[in-house]
Structure formats: structure tokens, C-alpha cells
Design brief:
Elements (H helix, E strand, L loop, with lengths): L2 H12 L17 E6 L5 E5 L12 H10 L7 E5 L12 H7 L3
Parallel strand pairs: 2-3
Antiparallel strand pairs: 1-2
Helix pairs in contact: 1-2
Length: about 100
């Protein structure tokens, strides 16, 4: 299985994890900054939250890790939480902004 296939599998799994405050999955919300598939099929996610004081700060990264771990082809998954750059609504794709009425 190629790294690209594994990355796509991880992205599909991440789309099953939703921010409880915004009815959008964490990938489409723009909270996932990077999905790095290593040569040994380990996956390292770099992600953020909508705000540093986000009430789900203790839960959402672990949900992302579990989802990535469950993707076909993944050996092990880790998550790095960052606030650089800070998240804002411009990180969402246009279709999500339309769905949420953010124009």
C-alpha cells in the first residue's frame, strides 16, 4: 500500500470525527494541518483546535489519533497539537463556509 493511499485512508477516517461545537468534521474544518505517513506506515498528525481554551482540547486530539490508527494500512498514529498558525475560519474550504453561512 502506498503512502498516498494510506494518507487518503487516514483523511477518510478523520472525516468521521466532528467538532462538537461546529457540525463539521475536523478535516474539513481545517483543524488538520498535516498528515505525514512515514516509511514504516506510522502516521504523524499535526493539528490545532479552534481556540487554545477549546473545551474539547483533552478529547479531540485523542479522537483524531484513534481515527488515524483505525485507517487501513496504518501501523501507529501520533498527534502533535499546535497553535501556530492559529486557526481561523479562512482555513475552511469554501463549501464548508457556505454550509455554515459564513460569507
Amino acid at each position: 500500500m502506498t503512502k498516498e493511499v494510506i494518507k487518503n485512508n487516514v483523511i477518510e477516517q478523520l472525516k468521521t470525527v466532528f467538532d462538537p461545537e461546529i457540525p463539521v468534521n475536523i478535516y474539513d474544518l481545517g483543524l488538520i494541518y498535516d498528515v505525514d505517513v512515514k516509511d514504516n506506515n506510522d502516521v504523524h498528525l499535526t493539528m490545532t483546535l479552534t481556540a487554545p481554551g477549546c473545551p474539547v482540547a483533552g478529547i479531540l486530539p485523542e479522537q483524531a489519533r484513534v481515527a488515524a490508527s483505525n485507517a487501513e494500512g496504518v501501523h501507529e498514529a501520533t498527534v502533535e497539537l499546535t497553535f501556530d498558525p492559529p486557526w481561523d475560519k479562512h482555513m475552511m474550504p469554501e463549501f464548508v463556509k457556505l454550509e455554515l453561512g459564513l460569507f
